[in-house]
């Protein structure tokens, strides 16, 4: 059984609470006290959509004194009722979809006692907090500021897509034979495609949206306004397919796939071409339903600006503002054939340095500063180092001499780490610039932000006494 263990840092808002001091502000319960380690195991490595996705969460007192652990927003509630796990699928971090509570102040019954070295575990179903809807591999790890991360996230495989239950039964008119069954299947497939399109749009981090290949293919160059318009359209398309009663009527008098009257929701007329189309794939039955539903004024009010994949691609390249209003563009994005990715999870490390005033010291003097290293990517970054660089100007680069260094632990996507550094000032007086650079790791998406900006460092001559003391320290 694979295992991941993290030991959480102490934070100012968290204290090891004595039972007599139980009034704690409700917005600080999501993290753990100092000295509590959290680990996650999968109970079963592969599950079907009908099975619970169970994991065992273990809390261990790694300190030397007893600890009081509040049950709230931990696995000890018997569910995932707080965003205390990081769950990713195909590089996408799943949003927390569980409950949000209003609670009364905690009492002694809400705490668990852990003796030094003691561990207690609870099995929970991940689906109570995160929706595992699509087949494939899910990576699960504790969420928090970890002191060490020595093993990869645990893996759980969902064997196939979770079926989407239709909320409404369609009305079908003038359709004979097996056509009603085909319509039922097509509507279910359309709902699944629309949900996936909606979820993919929602789950893509803002930092990655400009480079999403699938979006650019059908909607062109990224702007926040256009992205939000497409995302809103798929929100409404999915909610219509899953929550409204769609009326279908077979009209063999027209050779086309289908048609609607935009001002008459939610009536869809199916033509001759609909019946020879595949259920899913390019120009499919499911895609046709998405196309037609998008036309309704109360849904997305799309138009038929261009037909076919080739014309839709050209529209995206040349007139992206029209592409976001084109029905076929929405259909092809949802059908996603041939399959294109939304984004690939990558590492992107950024370093920064903050000082409240200019640094000043003597020749060869000791200098201390605080820096931060952030992983602004979505993939986990391995451990690396951060170095202090001395420059003649404010632009800090890897070509500048190294004055000091410190280790940087493994960082999850979106995680930030504070690092304390110390170094000796140059042995010549003058004006310098100091910055920090985090060492590049394998798979990093960009390195132009690995070095911080520079801060001034003034180095002045030492007194005779300071020189003697420095020489003595060098001899040591």
From TrEMBL:
The membrane spanning regions, by residue number, are none
Which InterPro entries has this protein been placed in?
A: CARDB (IPR011635), Fungal_M35_metalloproteases (IPR050414), Ig-like_fold (IPR013783), Lys_MEP (IPR029463), MetalloPept_cat_dom_sf (IPR024079)
Which GO terms of the molecular function aspect are on file? metal ion binding; metalloendopeptidase activity
Please cite one Gene Ontology biological process associated with this protein: proteolysis
Question: Please, which domain of life does this record's source organism belong to?
Answer: Bacteria
Where does the secretion signal sit in this chain?
Answer: 1-30
Domain Lysine-specific metallo-endopeptidase, first and last residues per copy = 199-335
What is the required cofactor set for this protein?
Zn(2+)
| Matching SUPFAM superfamilies | Metalloproteases ('zincins'), catalytic domain
Instruction: Provide this UniProt record's keywords sorted from A to Z.
Output: Hydrolase, Metal-binding, Metalloprotease, Protease, Signal, Zinc
- What family is reported? Belongs to the peptidase M35 family.
Specify the protein name.
Answer: Lysine-specific metallo-endopeptidase domain-containing protein
| Species name | Arenicella chitinivorans
